[in-house]
Design a protein that fits this description.
The complex is a heterodimer of chains A (377) and B (120).
Chain A (H helix, E strand, L loop, with lengths): L9 E2 L3 H6 L3 E5 L2 E6 L4 H10 L1 E5 L4 E7 L3 H9 L14 E7 L5 E9 L4 E5 L4 H12 L3 E6 L2 E7 L3 H6 L13 E4 L6 E4 L8 E7 H12 L4 E3 L2 H10 L41 H10 L3 E8 L10 E4 L2 E12 L4 E9 L8 E6 L2 E8 L11
Parallel strand pairs in A: 1-3, 4-14
Antiparallel strand pairs in A: 2-3, 4-10, 5-8, 5-9, 6-7, 7-8, 10-13, 11-12, 12-13, 15-18, 15-20, 16-17, 16-19, 17-18, 19-20
Helix pairs in contact in A: 2-7
Chain B lengths: L1 E2 L4 E6 L3 E6 L1 H7 L2 E5 L6 E2 L4 E7 L3 E5 L4 E6 L2 H4 L3 H4 L8 E4 L12 H8 L1
Antiparallel strand pairs in B: 1-2, 2-3, 3-9, 4-6, 5-8, 6-7, 8-9
Classes of the chains: A alpha+beta (377), B alpha+beta (120).
Chain lengths: 377, 120
């Protein structure tokens, strides 16, 4: 086990539930988190894709931005922090966003939702105090920045998610991918989005801490739902080709290098109605125009040996890149990885080698996602 | 059957051979095994040499040879079915057979009761 100071670890609102379910707990982003339950990572992963999995993601930061003037004024100020179109986001919809720095690097990735009279934002656990400070510094003239500290955040993911959640809260059945809504339930108001980070259809559910245990127990009452730990959350998102902050993206990677150009709407690009005007715009817009020098790719080792994070990649004897996340993909049933390579080496099918325990083993660049996604669009 | 502090088991087979695997406790701690790299047959190994690499969904781990000897057989089934290590760690999930000068070398290791005390 770890030598970290356990007294510095924060507990999740559902900590006792995880322990009673037999979770193995590990420190992650300052929280004592379930890494897996007795079923183990492999079964948890496969069950999520076959039926549904319940993830406790209460470590993530939930923040409300309440406009001091009006929503368009706030939207424009929020846009000044991201290469993303906030102004056009309709009510009841969520969008993926990225805080960038002046060098075009990524400070964090996030989800933001237009909830009619305010924005609801979900940020990464490890970045949340920096993000709240960033929002407060830049938006306090136009918004109240209100951290939500009394709500748990659960993710219910997989093909059975709709059936299971609709039994507790029927309106969720008609939601589409990236819709958001606030729905009354036996567990108080649920703040629901049809989204997640597994590549599956599913929901993220913000529930008052006082109701979180009863809500989680109700969702777990059917055999369709297993509790899922961080281990399977990581293998699911890796198969889905999704970036994890601190691995695929950080302050040294730009959104274009990371292959996140789909998150940069036309209105913010060169020639768009509100082009540029975000931190790092000169570099990001230049890379959008002429292509980045290096880019994030999917990777498939040819043998059975997994290639982990930090594995060096070679073309012949020339070092060309590094793996940023790697392991075994239970649904792919083979080792999988993501990493950065020069744009010249990014075409699917390009063969490289990765150094594992002193041996150079072959792997091929593969299209992302590494396993098909099934969002309900 | 004898047990090491590194959570291996050792079983004598015939006059001069020891079969080596990992315990159920170790397999549970590792999680689902997805890859096993086995030693070369006829390799001469010394106690403490890294002879097997196990990759689980979580991480890579080394298995050290508990004794000096010559690798005479490896469990090739693990190449295609690494999950045997989880399903049957004390049986079908064995790793390798090592030929030793004197099988009494295993007397230095723990018996089952001593091992149970170690992991409890």
């Amino acid at each position: 086990m770890t030598d970290l100071d356990d007294h510095d670890l924060r507990q999740l609102p559902l900590h006792d539930l995880h322990v009673s379910l037999g979770a193995r707990m590990v420190p992650f982003a300052g929280y004592d988190m379930p890494v897996h339950y007795p079923a183990g990572v492999m079964k948890e992963h496969l069950h999520t894709r076959a039926a549904a999995g319940l993830f406790d993601v209460s470590h993530m930061g939930q923040v409300i931005l309440r406009p001091r003037i009006d929503m368009p004024t706030l939207a424009l100020a929020f846009e000044a922090l991201m290469p993303v179109d906030v102004l056009s986001l309709p009510q009841g919809r969520q969008r993926y966003g990225l805080f960038t720095n002046d060098a075009g690097g990524i400070l964090d990735d996030l989800m933001f939702a237009n909830r009619s009279d305010h924005f609801f934002v979900v940020v990464n656990a490890a970045c949340k105090s920096a993000d709240i400070a960033h929002l407060t510094t830049h938006l306090s003239q136009v918004a109240e920045v209100i951290p939500v500290t009394d709500r748990a955040l659960l993710a219910l993911q997989g093909p059975a998610a709709e059936f299971v959640l609709a039994a507790l809260c029927s309106p969720v059945a008609s939601m589409r991918f990236m819709d958001v809504g606030i729905f009354p339930s036996d567990f108080g108001d649920l703040w629901v989005s049809r989204s997640g980070y597994t590549g599956e259809d599913g929901y993220e559910i913000s529930v008052a801490e006082t109701h979180a245990l009863a809500c989680a127990r109700s969702l777990l009452a059917t055999s369709a739902v297993l509790p899922i730990g961080l281990g399977a959350r990581d293998s699911l998102r890796l198969e889905a080709g999704l970036c994890l902050y601190g691995h695929e993206i950080d302050t040294t990677t730009t959104p274009v290098e990371a292959g996140l150009t789909w998150a940069i709407q036309k209105s913010r690009r060169t020639g768009g109605a509100r082009q540029g005007g975000f931190p790092g715009a000169s570099r990001i817009l230049a890379e959008l125009g002429s292509g980045p020098a290096r880019t994030r790719v999917g990777l498939r080792p040819e043998g059975r040996a997994p290639m982990r994070e930090n594995t060096a990649l070679y073309d012949g004897d020339t070092p060309v890149g590094t793996i940023t996340s790697g392991g075994f993909g239970p649904s792919v049933n083979a080792p999988i990885a993501m990493g950065y390579v020069p744009a010249t080496h990014a075409a699917p099918g390009t063969t490289l080698t990765g150094e594992v325990r002193g041996k150079r083993l072959p792997l091929a660049v593969a299209p992302l996602p590494l396993f098909p996604t099934s969002y309900k669009r | 059957m004898k047990f090491t502090e590194d959570h291996e088991w050792l079983r004598v087979e015939g006059d001069d051979t020891i079969v080596v695997g990992i315990t159920e406790h170790a397999a549970t701690q590792l999680g689902d095994v997805v890859f096993v790299e086995l030693p070369e047959i006829e390799a001469m190994v010394a106690e403490g040499d890294e002879v097997v690499v196990i990759e689980s969904v979580k991480a890579a781990s080394d298995i050290l040879s508990p004794v000096d000897g010559e690798i005479i057989e490896v469990n090739d089934k693990l190449t295609d079915k690494p999950g045997l290590v989880n399903d049957d760690p004390l049986g079908a999930g064995w790793f390798f057979k090592i030929k030793v000068d004197d099988v009494s070398v295993i007397d230095q290791f723990m018996d089952e009761d001593e091992y149970q005390d170690l992991i409890s």
